[in-house]
UniProtKB/TrEMBL annotation:
PROSITE patterns: AA_TRANSFER_CLASS_1. It comes from Lupinus angustifolius (Narrow-leaved blue lupine). It holds the Pfam family Aminotran_1_2. One of its GO terms (molecular function) is L-tyrosine-2-oxoglutarate transaminase activity. The modification N6-(pyridoxal phosphate)lysine is found at K249. CDD domains: AAT_like (cd00609). It comes from the Eukaryota. Residues 43-377 form the Aminotransferase class I/classII large domain. This is Aminotransferase class I/classII large domain-containing protein.
Length: 394
């Protein structure tokens, strides 16, 4: 440059993107970078909910995708919103749990549930709007809201009440600019399942506030406790519901990147307020889900047997019970509730019993470095050893 000075360019990186880059993947990569390369033990990954680490999808699902590829019929671009047969299959699948029937026009296929989240929050991001998110919750919602300028307000989930929504604080957060709330059921990261009665109270509260419910049901039907899974769409006659789901967890195929948005709204409020129109417009400028997986979807949903689901749930139940019991032997950890669903569990770190641990991030970084555990019952012994090593000397 002239006289050794730096040239002034007219471009810069988007600082809003840096500020909103909070994700499970980002944390996972950060912790992986801290692993001790001299530790020859296998790494135990507890912070990445990738079911392919422990399960495999069904043979019928794999054959359906192979058949789709070999037919040479689905190498083209997908219509915006998805292939008609795939949309109809998802509508039928969701309708089996509802007191009314969804049509293919209620379904929009996306490139995984992450894109479904991005689309749904982006279409709500008008100037001054805010959205209510659960705490604890899934970081993608916070990241997307921050990136598209949607203000976030957090309502608490109460561990002493099985992680139910704190309805009083929920109401106090809302104002005339609140557009929606997010509910994750079964819950990631808490591992709880909301009861029918509690979901009805949430729906009635949202109706009073004039907002709709975004119901993240990626872990739908992955329940192994006393409470059955109840989709929020059951209460759509009370309050409009947008249901989000995907193939990732129940069918163990996150890499296939197929998710969906379902508008559960028998009264047509989402149509009248142009939320549906905005979703369609967004899909016109976004990348569609792979057509080969879309084409296989009807067979996947139809042919997956109850035995497959039950086998996986039995493994999850046994693992959850084992973790819950073994966690009692780790003084620095408390598990408020035994997991009832998903592949998650929320634990509390008792910092009063630890020394040289600053916060939860510090705990996880040092645990990864010392024990090669990235916060499965396989890792509990190492977590216990770590806790004892850092316990305060009395």
């Amino acid at each position: 440059m002239e006289n050794g000075s730096k040239k002034k360019w007219n471009f810069n990186g988007n600082k809003d993107l840096n500020a909103s880059a909070i994700s499970v993947k980002g944390v996972f990569n950060k912790l992986t970078a801290t692993l001790n390369k001299d530790d020859k033990r296998p790494v135990v990954r507890l912070c990445r909910a990738d079911p392919t680490d422990f399960f495999k999808t069904t043979d019928d699902a794999s054959h359906a995708v192979a058949e789709s590829i070999l037919s040479f019929k689905f190498n083209s671009y997908s219509p915006s919103g998805g292939l008609p047969d795939a949309k109809r299959a998802v509508a039928d699948y969701l309708s089996s749990d509802l007191p009314y029937k969804l049509s293919p026009e209620n379904i929009f296929l996306t490139s995984g549930c992450t894109e479904a989240i991005n689309i749904t929050l982006t279409v709500l991001a008008r100037s001054g709007a805010n959205i209510l998110l659960p705490r604890p919750g899934y970081p993608q919602y916070q990241s997307r809201a921050a990136f598209c300028g949607l203000e976030v307000r957090y309502f608490d989930l109460l561990p002493e009440k099985g992680w139910e929504v704190d309805l009083d604080s929920f109401v106090s957060l809302a104002d005339e600019n609140t557009v929606a709330m997010v509910l994750i059921n079964p819950s990631n990261p808490c591992g709880n399942v909301f009861s029918y009665q509690h979901l009805q109270k949430v729906a009635e509260t949202a109706r009073k506030l004039g907002i709709f419910v975004i119901s993240d049901e990626v872990y739908g039907h992955i329940t192994f406790g006393s409470k059955p899974f109840v989709p929020m769409g059951v209460f759509a006659s009370i309050v409009p519901v947008i249901t989000l789901g995907s193939l990732s967890k129940r069918w163990v195929a996150p890499g296939w990147r197929l998710g969906w948005i379902g508008t559960c709204d028998p009264n047509g409020y989402l149509q009248d307020t142009e939320i549906v129109t905005n979703i369609k417009n967004y899909l016109d400028i976004s990348c569609s889900a792979a057509t080969i997986v879309q084409a296989a979807l009807p067979q996947i949903l139809e042919k997956t047997t109850d035995d497959y689901y039950s086998k996986n749930l039995n493994i999850m139940r046994e693992t959850a019970n084992t973790f819950y019991e073994r966690c009692k032997d780790i003084p620095c950890l408390t598990c408020p509730n035994k997991p009832e669903g998903t592949m998650m569990v929320m634990v509390q770190i008792n910092f009063s019993q630890l020394e040289d641990i600053i916060d939860d991030v510090d705990f996880c970084i040092k645990l990864a470095k010392e024990e090669s555990v990235i916060l499965l019952p396989e890792g509990v012994k190492r977590i216990k050893a770590f806790g004892l090593r850092h316990s305060k000397k009395l």
